[in-house]
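note to self — DONT lose this again. spent like an hour looking for the file last time. sequence + predicted structure for the chain T wanted, 144 res
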Amino acid sequence: MKNTILIGLLFILVSCNSTKDYTNTVFEEIYNSQIGGKDEFAYEHITSNEDFLTLIERLNLQEVENDKMLELDFSKNDVVVIYLGQRNTGGYSISVDSLYWQDSILNIETIITKPGKGENVTMVITTPYCVVSIPKAKEIQVYK
């Protein structure tokens, strides 16, 4: 009886194993800011140069002379913009920790940085976000 239960549990564990594929998961943060994002946690998946130029205009980034932004190749990469949402002070940021493929979906795990206890911060409402170059993907999912 014990052997039957153990074999059943082993079968369940093996059959429920969802694999994460870490190949082709190189990413690069190309811009981040504490001001200019959205009021709620959200993300945008940019797949073309035209949409990227619209994003640059909407976020008012025309003055940014960032070679990484100018050299993006949308035949090989996409861009994801991840918005942390509104915060009551400075000291907050969001960035990408890791990427992995699962069932043809590019999953993006983020890191949220908060100000330390007693740390001096700017007393102004902020809306942090980051802009990240990712591999080409038909579908993405962002986790905070």
